[in-house]
Design goal:
Layout (H helix, E strand, L loop, with lengths): L7 E10 L2 E11 L4 E5 L6 H8 L7 E6 L2 E2 L8 H4 L1 E4 L11 H10 L6 H5 L3 H20 L15 H13 L5 E5 L7 H18 L2 E5 L3 H7 L2 E6 L2 E6 L1 H6 L1 H8 L5
Parallel strand pairs: 3-8, 3-9, 6-7, 7-8
Antiparallel strand pairs: 1-2, 1-4, 4-5, 9-10
Helix pairs in contact: 3-5, 3-6, 5-6
Bound molecules: adenosine-5'-triphosphate (ATP).
């Protein structure tokens, strides 16, 4: 299904790890401003695709266009400034630092300050630091975390840490946010909050969202479009209803053996 002027365009992407084919000619578009779910049984290739889009992995074949341009030559550290943010399945946080410091660390890559300017305490460094602190507090407020700003991460519940991961990814105001299993480990109330948060991210930041998720209820509720993978291949894409009723998707999940 081709979209006019998509934000992301995955074109015939294949990835091999030795003899393992993790992705096999996968193509789909992510329309601007949409929330898109990427589903598939264990080992389907979802994380591999995420890692290709965030440039942690190279592709063996195919192309990935972001805003109409190939990103395959962009180094991983440039992805945030290009407009691609991500959260990780296993939280990538510093347990001994405060909530605020964890967010600010994410922003230091966009600061101009170098070792020498820092050592000399130049006035513009202080301004830059102040501005980063204010932006960090803004995203913490957006995620309802401002009260925890000075608390150590290790002392906070898992659900709060998951929200912090999202806050940190939002600091760079990504055009595309890749969320890797945001629902993992959350309780019922936190799941409903997550649905509202994903919608607010799209509506208030204008961010397009691609989420990998095993929690089918959440994916089907929040996504406008769903792409289903199995054994590295795209099985189907379409509305949540289309995907839920698609015989190949049902078979991949239930293993009915019918074809
Ligand atoms: P899950 O839902 O369990 O996280 P997934 O859909 O994200 O699964 P991937 O993690 O992308 O699936 O894995 C796809 C295939 O590629 C699997 O067979 C996996 O073992 C393999 N694979 C993924 N990363 C690597 C790697 N770095 N080295 C070797 N094989 C890998």
């Amino acid at each position: 299904m081709l979209t006019a002027d998509p934000l992301l365009n995955v074109q015939d992407v294949s990835v091999h790890f030795g003899g393992i084919v993790a992705l096999d000619g996968v193509s789909f578009d992510i329309p601007r401003g949409q929330i898109v779910g990427l589903i598939g049984p264990n080992g389907a290739g979802k994380t591999t695709l995420f890692n290709c889009i965030s440039r942690l992995y190279n592709v063996n074949k195919g192309d990935i266009l972001f805003n109409g341009k190939s990103i395959l030559k962009s180094p991983v550290y440039k992805m945030s400034s290009l407009g691609v943010g991500r959260t990780f399945q296993n939280l990538a946080l510093f347990a001994n630092l405060t909530v605020l410091d964890n967010v600010m660390i994410g922003g230091h890559s966009t600061c101009k300050a170098d070792y020498l300017s820092n050592a000399l305490h130049l006035p513009w460094i202080k301004r830059e630091e102040k501005e980063l602190r204010a932006r960090s507090m803004d995203v913490l407020r957006f995620m309802g975390l401002e009260q925890t700003a000075l608390q150590r991460i290790g002392d906070l519940p898992f659900g709060v840490q998951k929200r912090l991961e999202i806050a940190r990814a939002l600091l760079s105001k990504p055009k595309l946010l890749l969320m890797d299993e945001p629902a993992g480990g959350l309780n019922h109330n936190e799941l409903s909050e997550l649905v509202a948060t994903i919608r607010r991210i799209r509506d208030e930041f204008g961010t397009t969202v691609l989420l990998v998720e095993h929690h089918m209820g959440l994916v089907m509720e929040v996504s406008e479009k769903v792409v289903a993978l199995s054994f590295g291949r795209k099985l189907a894409e379409g509305s949540p209803k289309t995907i839920q009723e698609h015989p190949d998707v049902i078979e991949a999940y239930l293993g009915t053996g019918k074809k």
